[in-house]
């Protein structure tokens, strides 16, 4: 006999949220910081998205909400097609974190910069990344509202 599923502390009406990261890009392979640079999926990324789409096609899902970047769009479109999801919502608020001057840099090169060393030496979630990047709190505030709204 299976154990009983515990009741939700939120009552009978709650939303299940499944978060899927986009598939692989060439910049992921080369360890290049993407941030908001709009990279497309590579062939491995397309295969990853197809596998996730197949898995999620077995689940109930009334909507798909995704960021405005090509890699997220392609991943969401593949999942929606496999799952017969017709309610697709593209939301710029869910875009990647702006990585400031680190966007387009190899991770190893970024780690060697004085800007990174200065940024990483404190644990202030309000500190913005050098070069116009977002703080962790800015990222959280921007992404949480759409998820709460759509769930």
Automatic annotation (TrEMBL):
Q: Which PROSITE patterns match?
A: PG_MUTASE (PS00175)
InterPro entries reported in the protein's UniProt record: His_Pase_superF_clade-1 (IPR013078), His_PPase_superfam (IPR029033), PG/BPGM_mutase_AS (IPR001345), PGM_Phosphatase (IPR050275)
Region (Disordered) residue spans:
118-141
Q: Where does substrate bind?
A: 21-28, 71
GO CC term, one of those recorded: cytosol
The active-site annotation reads: 22 (tele-phosphohistidine intermediate), 96 (proton donor/acceptor)
The record's Pfam families line, in alphabetical order, gives: His_Phos_1
Give the highest taxon in the source lineage: Eukaryota
GO molecular function annotations of the record: phosphatase activity
| Recorded family membership | Belongs to the phosphoglycerate mutase family.
Please state what the protein is called.
Uncharacterized protein
The organism encoding this protein is Panicum virgatum
